[in-house]
């Protein structure tokens, strides 16, 4: 089924499977990636490789970005050969990276001066959700523009919620990260307590996961943690970028977030120890160093 043309900038762990899902949903995808080989790979699968974000914007009524951090979105949107130089009147830039709400609003204002629109649409669900097309997508921006872009979002995700004006998608994603960080910390402390008290860690998780203490983190990351599996779904260094965004935004509001700040510091200790590329469940290692006890099933880790 033909669905029209969508531009895609940033074919990383998340962006590549999201672009592939758009093609599966019937969209023609025009893609740019800084490392050109990834766009060429997509071209061998039916996409079109472009030479710059500007070229993508000239060719597409909707342009998605999925890059790393605020300065990276600024570079591809506002920099030389960027989206702003090529964007069509009434076209939409959808930024799906996790970045600062304030930077998002500034980019939206620049696009608006050119008669174009912006939606901030960060995601939750990890690389698995990106591959399966089951991402949760939290969208900020004009409601009518959101409605116009819904078929594009449906090509990549399932729980798609318009949460407010420009920047509110990013605010909601940061709320998500406060919840994820605090819950991961509770899982790490709980399993360390269980191990110290001589509990069977697998049975402990089995017993509590379905009750009031259940969580995605306990159910999915708890079993990996106790087996000593610290391979990343979501890397410590990316979570640190997100917690930095949370704490900067909180600071600007004079809002104390003591538990989130503590988790940020514990992850900083892991980064200092060279563990920034491990998964966020490695948080338990920071607690283990303080406690001198390990939360592992016997013989593992
Ligand atoms: P990634 O694998 O590191 O990919 C980053 C992509 O951005 C690459 O295509 C990279 O190009 C491009 N890029 C970075 N800086 C750039 C710049 N200055 N100019 C042009 N291109 C640039 O990261 P990812 O895991 O896909 O994450 C992307 C975004 O999604 C991040 O904001 C992240 O926080 C968010 N997110 C990630 C997850 C997850 O589980 N991974 C979950 C939810 C949200 P090159 O190929 O040239 O390096």
Notable traits:
301 residues, alpha/beta, N-(1-d-carboxylethyl)-l-norvaline Dehydrogenase, domain 2, 2 domains, 14 helices, 13% strand
CATH structural class of the largest domain: Alpha Beta
The kinds of small molecule bound in this structure are: NADP nicotinamide-adenine-dinucleotide phosphate
In spatial order, strands of the major sheet run 3-2-1-4-5-6
Average pLDDT works out at 96
Structural class: alpha/beta
Question: Ranges with pLDDT <50 over ≥5 residues?
Answer: none
CATH homolog superfamily of the largest domain: NAD(P)-binding Rossmann-like Domain
Reported CATH architecture of the largest domain: 3-Layer(aba) Sandwich
Please write the string of helix (H) and strand (E) elements. EHEHEHEHHEHEEHEHEHHHHHH
Specify the biggest β-sheet: 6 strands, parallel
Radius of gyration: 21 Å
Task: Count up the helices.
Answer: 14
Question: What fold name goes in the CATH topology slot of the largest domain?
Answer: Rossmann fold
- Shape label: elongated
* Total tally of structural domains: 2
Estimate what percentage of residues fall within beta strands. 5-15%
Please report the total strand number as a whole number: 9
Span between termini: 49 Å
Polypeptide structure, described:
This protein is an alpha/beta fold. The chain has two domains: 5-165, NAD(P)-binding Rossmann-like Domain (Rossmann fold, 3-Layer(aba) Sandwich); 172-291, N-(1-d-carboxylethyl)-l-norvaline Dehydrogenase, domain 2 (Orthogonal Bundle), CATH 1.10.1040. 53% of the residues lie in helices and 13% in strands. The protein has 14 helices and nine strands. The protein has helices spanning 15-24, 36-44, 53-59, 70-78, 83-86, 101-113, 126-132, 143-154, 168-196, 201-208, 216-226, 236-252, 258-272, 283-291; strands spanning 5-9, 28-32, 48-49, 62-65, 92-95, 117-120, 123-124, 135-140, 157-164. Strand 1 (5-9), helix 1 (15-24) and strand 2 (28-32) form a beta-alpha-beta unit. Helix 9 (168-196) runs parallel beside helix 14 and helix 13 crosses helix 14. The longest helix is centred in the middle third of the chain and has 29 residues, at 168-196. It is elongated and about 65 Å long. NADP nicotinamide-adenine-dinucleotide phosphate binds next to helix 4, strand 7 and helix 7.
């Amino acid at each position: 089924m033909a669905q029209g043309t969508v531009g895609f900038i940033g074919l990383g762990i998340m962006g590549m499977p999201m672009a592939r899902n758009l093609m599966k949903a019937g969209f023609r995808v025009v893609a740019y990636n800084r490392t050109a080989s990834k766009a060429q790979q997509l071209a061998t699968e039916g996409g079109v490789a472009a030479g710059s974000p500007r070229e993508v914007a000239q060719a597409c009524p909707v342009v998605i970005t999925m890059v790393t951090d605020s300065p990276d979105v600024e570079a591809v949107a506002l920099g030389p050969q960027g989206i702003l130089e090529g964007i069509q009147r009434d076209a939409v830039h959808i930024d799906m990276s996790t970045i600062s709400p304030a930077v998002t609003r500034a980019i939206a204002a620049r696009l608006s001066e050119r008669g174009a629109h912006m939606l901030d649409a960060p995601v939750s669900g990890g690389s698995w959700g990106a591959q399966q097309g089951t991402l949760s997508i939290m969208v900020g921006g004009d409601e009518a523009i959101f409605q116009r872009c819904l078929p594009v979002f449906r090509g990549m995700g399932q729980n798609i919620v318009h949460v407010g004006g420009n920047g509110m998608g990013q605010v909601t994603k940061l709320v998500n990260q406060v919840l994820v960080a605090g819950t991961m910390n509770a899982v790490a402390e709980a399993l360390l307590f269980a191990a110290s008290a001589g509990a069977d860690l697998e049975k402990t998780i089995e017993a509590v996961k379905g009750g009031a203490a259940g969580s995605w983190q306990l159910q999915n990351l708890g079993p990996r943690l106790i087996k000593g599996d610290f391979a990343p779904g979501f890397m410590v260094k990316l979570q640190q970028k997100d917690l930095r965004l949370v704490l900067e935004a909180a600071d600007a509001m004079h809002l104390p977030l003591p538990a989130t700040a503590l988790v940020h510091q514990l992850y900083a200790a892991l980064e200092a120890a060279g563990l920034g590329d491990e998964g966020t469940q490695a948080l338990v290692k920071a607690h283990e160093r303080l406690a001198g006890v390990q939360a592992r099933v016997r013989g593992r880790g």
